[in-house]
Design brief:
binds coenzyme A; elongated; about 15% helix; alpha+beta; Thiol Ester Dehydrase, Chain A; five-stranded antiparallel beta sheet
């Protein structure tokens, strides 16, 4: 199941009319934070964007699906792999993988300091 499904609007376009990469990055960050917060059982902050590949352009009106999975759990950090698929012509089921990224989130406490991630058995 995708963590997010969203359709970029004209306000999300760059000067060439395609979707602005920074908008895609923000959606990827949101999508990745969902499993990170769930696994850490609390708030998280993004500490690093380890890799980011814009393989194909995204167009206004594409229906984007953001899939995000935990790839590594450390003491206080969680690394997430995010893939983004664009449905371009929905009636023709034309789906393209447009972006992939790996991000690291740190579990934080109420003072915004790193917090130890609980074992799965405690969730
Ligand atoms: C997140 C934050 C609280 C972490 O505090 P810190 O003192 O820098 O963190 P630490 O050095 O103790 O490292 C915490 C974890 O991050 C990991 N980490 C640190 N730098 C990293 C990097 N460049 N890439 C990947 N992981 C990294 C550490 O390995 C550690 O993980 P582990 O405990 O699983 O081994 C702090 O860096 C911060 O507030 N950053 C700003 C966050 C932010 O505003 N993000 C954007 C909006 S959400």
């Amino acid at each position: 199941m995708p963590q997010l499904r969203v359709m970029p609007m004209p306000a999300d376009a760059n000067i060439h009319g395609d979707v602005f990469g920074g908008w895609i990055m923000s959606q990827v960050d949101i999508a990745g934070a969902i499993p990170a917060a769930r696994r850490s059982n609390g708030r998280v902050a993004t500490i690093a964007v380890n890799s980011f590949l814009f393989k194909h352009p995204v167009f206004v009106g594409d229906l984007l699906s953001f899939y995000a999975d935990v790839v590594k759990v450390g003491r206080t950090s969680i690394t997430i792999y995010v893939e983004v698929y664009a449905e371009r012509n929905r009636l023709e089921a034309d789906t393209v993988k447009v972006t992939e990224a790996t991000l690291t989130y740190v579990a934080t406490d109420e003072n915004r300091k790193p917090r130890v991630i609980p074992p799965l058995s405690e969730l």
